[in-house]
UniProtKB/TrEMBL annotation:
This is Mitochondrial cytochrome c oxidase subunit VIc/VIIs domain-containing protein. It comes from Parnassius mnemosyne (clouded apollo). It is found in: Mitochondrion inner membrane. Its main location: mitochondrion. Gene3D superfamilies: Mitochondrial cytochrome c oxidase subunit VIc/VIIs. Pfam families: COX6C (PF02937).
């Protein structure tokens, strides 16, 4: 057999299995390096300021305002002279001598 001769029975429809062409790589966005530190710093500062404003408002609404209302109520119905007389009788004031007991 001569190597240059074709096969005596060639296949009329050759089946050629080729792998599919490779898919295109995903289009990745390149990071922006110029001004990256400044942009991140601005974002972090903005988040910190917003969080501090929100936490301050929440503290005022849930702690400060109720406390303020309780103090208003306390001083509105306070009987300070009666309390001062009672504390003087008990000897709690250093500048006021303790009155003698009447038995």
């Amino acid at each position: 057999m001569n190597p240059k001769c074709p096969d005596p029975n060639p296949d009329p429809c050759p089946q050629v299995c080729q792998p599919p062409p490779p898919s295109q790589p995903a289009c990745l966005v390149k990071p922006v390096m110029r001004g990256l530190h400044r942009a991140q710093t601005k974002r972090v500062l903005t988040q910190a300021i917003l969080l501090s404003i929100l936490s301050g408002a929440a503290y005022y609404l849930f702690v400060g305002a109720p406390r303020k209302q309780k103090y208003k109520e306390f001083y509105a119905k306070g009987e300070f002279e009666d309390w001062a007389d009672e504390m003087a009788r008990k000897g709690l004031f250093q500048a006021v001598p303790r009155p003698p007991r009447n038995n």
